[in-house]
């Protein structure tokens, strides 16, 4: 007689027997409608009870059955067979997304992993693109929607955006030499431009976040609040601006947030130059000869819709500061002799910039030249003696590339920024040709400033780089 009695049947064995009986009954009923001599098919290696239980407990289409006991009365010690089968047969449905569609060959482990499509993009832009959760678009001297690569790229890459303008206190107040870093007229122009930018973003479904503070402090705060994984911005050229970019990059690296800078402040793109920036000629003539064969890149279209600010973090847009908020007094509109001050009447913003460009192109097209350079310039620009568009170019309300494209549309002949200003003086295009010449001077100043502001040896820029363009 065997001294080891058989183990008592567990609840799983009872359930297996019950389910097996139910399955056997179902099989018998099905067999009755078939040929009585038909042979039964061999069962799979997986116990039929496990299959029945899987379908009953985990199938979203299964109906309650009196044959299978309530799950509350079932206790599994080793549920690997049942759970693995149910998982493979009925994986959790993936959440639908308007931006992403999961391919059919995604494994169950990928479906169950947290947010596999929202991982941060690698630093190498040539790598496969991944959708970003949120991107901060840091507007600087590019207060426009047209031809704005950081905005367009972020809008295409991200599920949400945080467009932001920062009023850095270091840009205001007194300089060591005792002058205002930003005067009241320029500050008023800046405020107008920011207000116009906010209106344009709101018309396209987004908004503009405005803060007073240092970028290396405010941007990480916004990134943490919004869950942003990147900052997109245009590069600038001066020493202080370059140092600000370095501080922001260091601060965001500590947060694990990528910073991506773009180039968009000149007629020619810095990547298209036929020389490295450190080898750039230090005189305008040499620079002009080097870039004579370059092509101006096409402008980037204004996005019809812009992604909105994420609800996470409850980020408030903030108020646009006044002159008093920036520590400045209102600027007078009249001079001491009772004449109106021209600077006080300038209105900042993209809309005003485009309107002025349109009027200037028409004026250049219809004006009659007088036969020499000086008279040509005077006749074209009239009492204003220039196009008076520099403030909008400097604030980034107008792209120099868009300016180039619009003037080319109006010209009777090919207009090149590398052309001589004396060519074609007897044609209506001479004024536009002169303006292209001035835009190239502007490029030279910005590139040479960037060259020496980025130099590690601290060498000073030549005196020619401090000369202002006539635009």
Strand order of the largest sheet: 3-2-1-4-5
Major sheet summary line: 5 strands, parallel
Count helical runs. Answer: 15
Q: List SSEs in N-to-C order.
A: HHHHEHEHEHEHEHHHHHHH
3D shape: globular
Distance between the termini: 112 Å
Into which percentage range does the β-strand content fall?
Answer: 5-15%
Number of extended strands? 5
Broad structural category: mainly alpha
**Residue windows where pLDDT falls under 50 for at least 5 positions:** 30-130, 368-384, 423-429, 457-471
Helix content bin:
25-40%
In round numbers, the mean pLDDT is: 73
Radius of gyration, taken over Cα atoms and rounded to an integer in Å: 35 Å
Structure description:
It is built from 15 helices and 5 strands. It is mostly helical and 471 residues long. Strands 3-2-1-4-5 form a 5-stranded parallel β-sheet, with helices on both faces. Helix 5 links the parallel strand 1 and strand 2. The protein is globular and about 55 Å long. The C terminus is likely disordered.
């Amino acid at each position: 007689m065997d001294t080891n009695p058989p183990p008592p049947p567990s609840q799983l064995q009872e359930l297996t027997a019950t389910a097996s009986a139910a399955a056997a009954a179902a099989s018998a009923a099905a067999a009755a409608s078939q040929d009585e001599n038909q042979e039964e098919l061999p069962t799979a290696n997986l116990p039929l009870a496990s299959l029945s239980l899987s379908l009953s407990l985990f199938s979203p289409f299964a109906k309650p059955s009196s044959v299978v006991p309530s799950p509350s009365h079932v206790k599994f010690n080793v549920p690997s067979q049942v759970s693995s089968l149910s998982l493979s047969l009925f994986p959790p449905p993936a959440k639908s997304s308007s931006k992403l569609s999961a391919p059919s060959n995604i494994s169950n482990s990928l479906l169950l992993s947290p947010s596999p499509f929202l991982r941060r993009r690698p630093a190498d832009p040539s790598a496969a693109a991944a959708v970003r959760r949120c991107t901060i678009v840091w507007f600087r001297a590019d207060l426009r929607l047209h031809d704005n690569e950081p905005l367009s790229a972020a809008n295409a890459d991200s599920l949400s955006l945080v467009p932001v303008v920062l009023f850095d206190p270091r840009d205001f107040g007194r300089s060591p030499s005792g002058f205002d870093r930003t005067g009241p007229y320029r500050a008023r122009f800046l405020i107008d431009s920011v207000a116009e930018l906010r209106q344009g973003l709101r018309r396209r479904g987004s908004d503009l976040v405005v803060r007073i503070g240092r970028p290396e402090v405010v941007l990480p705060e916004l990134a943490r609040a919004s869950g942003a994984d990147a900052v997109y911005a245009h590069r600038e050229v001066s020493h202080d601006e370059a140092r600000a970019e370095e501080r922001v990059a260091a601060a965001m690296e500590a947060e694990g947030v990528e910073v991506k800078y773009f180039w968009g402040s000149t007629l020619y793109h810095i990547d298209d130059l036929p020389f490295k920036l450190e080898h750039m000629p230090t005189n305008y003539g040499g620079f002009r000869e080097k870039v004579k064969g370059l092509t101006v890149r096409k402008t980037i279209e204004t996005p019809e819709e812009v992604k909105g600010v994420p609800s996470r973090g409850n980020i408030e847009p903030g108020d646009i500061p006044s002159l008093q908020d920036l520590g400045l007094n209102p600027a007078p509109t009249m001079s001491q002799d009772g004449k109106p001050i021209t600077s006080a009447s300038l209105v900042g913003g993209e809309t005003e910039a485009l309107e002025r460009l349109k009027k200037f192109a028409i004026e250049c097209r219809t004006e009659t030249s007088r036969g020499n350079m000086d008279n040509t310039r005077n006749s074209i620009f009239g009492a204003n003696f220039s196009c008076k568009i520099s403030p909008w170019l400097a604030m980034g309300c107008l792209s120099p590339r868009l300016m180039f494209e619009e003037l080319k549309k109006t010209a009777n002949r090919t207009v090149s920024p590398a052309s001589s200003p004396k060519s074609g003086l007897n044609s209506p295009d001479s004024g536009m040709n002169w303006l292209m010449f001035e835009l190239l001077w502007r490029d030279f100043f910005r590139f040479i400033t960037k060259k020496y502001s980025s130099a590690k040896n601290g060498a000073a820029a030549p005196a020619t780089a401090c000369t202002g363009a006539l635009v």
